[in-house]
């Protein structure tokens, strides 16, 4: 009998729990999250208070809602630089349509969902039809939305902010869905935590338990090879951009129903924060590797850092420095973990 026939298929070999753990994309971010938590627990006396932790969770959830679909998009090998201003666009559409049409605010919410998803389809369609890099396509969308947000708001409202819709029909019920808070004991938790948890659960299920998840990893790894084995590359990419648009709609409605009015210039620069959270959570810039849970951990690290600096009574001007340092350290740690995982196979 030949040696080839005696060698077992490596796919049938059992993998130890340690090797499986080292192979998880979010391992590095979990280690980083524990370190950040311990650090601010020591240097900031108020960090462990229930009210402080609820504030941290709120900051993490508002970022995490967007970081989850952005992570899936990055696993698929693409970027979306328009994600930040798309959140604002979603809020502006809901507010201005409801106010100008004197309609129930739920009508504006529905119109906003359709328009926001259409923008996601536009990004995916332009990417697949033109073959241009997603950086260029979504940078163009970013600039167009930035101009439209400001131009339409000033044209319709006469100022850079929308009119108040707090007294319109449907506002209280919409506020409960998108901007309410839950009280557990003495701790107030925002409803964004529920939206965030739901998105994490759905995204994790899609990635690990469905055919679509295999398509996302395949497209991010090598789209030509994926196309050769029958993966619907075009539909997968458009679907990923629609996922980002849907999360932007949720975030936009939270923004609107939390403050009643929306500033047209908000959201610029947030797209980089979403990408940073995904990278800290273990997503590779080159695509094909990452997890939704990792993006959630990355968002939690961001929330702890942004609020921990305040509770430690440090100068908040240093926040961007710490954010950049975390990004570099997380990227290095994730690369090291991945090499160890590959070496242990």
Mean pLDDT: 87
Distance N to C terminus: 26 Å
Radius of gyration: 22 Å
Strand content: under 5%
What does this protein look like?
- With 345 residues, the protein is an all-alpha fold.
- The chain contains 15 helices and two strands.
- It has helices spanning 3-6, 17-22, 27-43, 50-75, 83-101, 105-130, 134-157, 171-179, 192-209, 211-221, 223-228, 233-259, 270-280, 292-311, 319-343; strands at residues 181-184, 187-190.
- The chain has a two-stranded antiparallel ribbon with strand order 1-2.
- A hairpin with a 2-residue loop joins β1 (181-184) and β2 (187-190).
- α3 (27-43) runs parallel beside α14, α5 packs parallel to α7 (134-157) and α13 runs parallel beside α15 (319-343).
- The longest helix is centred in the last third of the chain and has 27 residues, at 233-259.
- Residues 1-13 have low confidence and may be disordered.
Keywords:
two-stranded antiparallel ribbon; mainly alpha; disordered N terminus
Reconstruct the topology from this structure.
Layout: H1 3-6, H2 17-22, H3 27-43, H4 50-75, H5 83-101, H6 105-130, H7 134-157, H8 171-179, E1 181-184, E2 187-190, H9 192-209, H10 211-221, H11 223-228, H12 233-259, H13 270-280, H14 292-311, H15 319-343
Helix pairs in contact: 3-14, 3-15, 4-9, 4-10, 4-12, 4-13, 4-14, 5-6, 5-7, 5-12, 6-12, 8-12, 9-10, 10-12, 13-14, 13-15
Short structural description:
The chain is an all-alpha fold and 345 residues long.
């Amino acid at each position: 009998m030949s040696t080839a026939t005696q060698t077992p298929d490596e796919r049938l070999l059992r993998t130890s729990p340690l090797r499986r753990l080292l192979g998880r994309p979010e391992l590095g971010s979990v280690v980083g999250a524990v370190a950040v938590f311990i650090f601010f627990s020591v240097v900031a006396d108020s960090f462990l208070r229930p009210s402080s932790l609820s504030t941290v969770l709120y900051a993490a959830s508002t970022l995490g809602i967007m970081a989850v679909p952005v992570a899936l998009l990055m696993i698929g090998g693409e970027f979306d630089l328009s994600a930040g201003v798309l959140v604002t666009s979603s809020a502006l559409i809901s507010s201005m349509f409801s106010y100008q049409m004197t309609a129930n605010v739920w009508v504006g919410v529905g119109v906003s969902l359709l328009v926001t998803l259409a923008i996601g389809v536009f990004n995916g369609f332009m990417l697949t039809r033109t073959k241009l890099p997603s950086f260029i396509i979504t940078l163009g969308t970013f600039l167009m939305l930035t101009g439209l947000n400001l131009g339409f708001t000033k044209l319709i409202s006469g100022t850079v902010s929308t009119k108040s819709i707090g007294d319109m029909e449907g506002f209280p019920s919409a506020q409960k869905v998108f901007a309410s808070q839950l009280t557990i004991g003495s701790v107030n938790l925002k409803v964004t935590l529920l939206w965030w948890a739901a998105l994490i659960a759905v995204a994790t299920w899609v990635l690990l338990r469905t055919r679509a998840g295999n398509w996302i990893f395949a497209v991010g790894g090598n789209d030509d090879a994926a196309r050769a084995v029958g993966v619907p590359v075009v539909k997968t990419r458009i679907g990923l951009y629609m996922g980002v648009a849907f999360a932007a709609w949720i975030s936009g409605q939270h923004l609107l129903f939390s403050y009643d009015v929306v500033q047209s210039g908000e959201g610029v620069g947030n797209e980089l924060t979403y990408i940073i959270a995904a990278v800290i959570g273990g997503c590779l810039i080159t695509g094909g590797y990452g997890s939704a849970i990792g993006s959630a951990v990355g968002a939690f690290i961001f929330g702890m850092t942004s609020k921990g600096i305040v509770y430690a009574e440090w100068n908040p001007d240093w926040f961007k420095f710490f954010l950049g340092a975390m990004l570099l350290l997380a990227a290095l740690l994730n690369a090291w973990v991945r090499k160890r995982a590959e070496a242990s196979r």
